[in-house]
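Worked example
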Amino acid sequence: MGNGADSRRGRRLGLLLIVLVAAAGSVVAVFYLRPQQDSSAAPPAPPGSDIGGGTGRYVALGDSYTASPRTGAPVGDPPGCDRSDNNYPRLIAAELRPAEFADVSCSGATTANLTGPHQTNNGTNPPQLDAVNADTTLVTLGIGGNDVGFIGLARDCATNDRNVSPCRARLDTGGRDQLAERIDATAPKIADVLDRIRGKAPKARVIVVGYPTALPAGTGCWPFLPLGPDDVAYLRESAARFNRTLAAQAKSHQAGFADTTKPSKGHDMCTKASTKWVEDLVPSAPALSLHPNAKGERAMADAVLELLS
């Protein structure tokens, strides 16, 4: 009987590893975040930035945490961007009721896809910044995780041994933290994007949207998420650093920051199906693995709307 249980456990872990690797092809920033102090900040409101009640133009830019694959019915072109009709930009637009709304977010996007085209597995998304113009009065931006390269960690960090943490041993050694270097290298890319937005839409309120909590404090939830304890801590610390970087860039480039970490605390992928806002490797609610579900998107929308109230 014991051998049978071990066999079933082994098969389950093998399945989870396969799902983890498969998800790596499309997920954005995978492991978010340790709880931290709320760092939300309202955006400056230039003259003419009114929006809502049939006025203004809202443009949503971002990656799959913005597009929200599989949480609702697919909308928009190209189909390969996997936007859902209940992602946080559409929830925001439904409440604000701007005169114009453009959601050009796309799963798998990097900062390069804001200024250049994005070839998806089903169509090409034009440069996202093309949607921003002088009439734009609100921009939300959720980007950067793919620039850092969190996708590859879904494959590299998975382990059959809960006591082994291959990623920290490889990436944080000899006094060099490679993941921290990637985060620091992404900061000027975010800065450039924010400058470009300001140049194209001088009267817009701009909000950088942070990434929500995916991992709890502690050692995680192996084998549901097959990561060793040191890697759980390392990824959590690195992701928190990334969110702080986004907040700092927003502050220094006349933008607001929507901290989604604090409201999503206690709703991470290791919590119960009825509680979680971020799904684990085998989603219990409609969503892409390791991505926010509909509840998570609602919480992200609320974090933005609070800054605009």
Observations:
- The chain has one domain: 2-308.
- The first helix runs from residue 2 to 23.
- The chain has a mean pLDDT of 87.
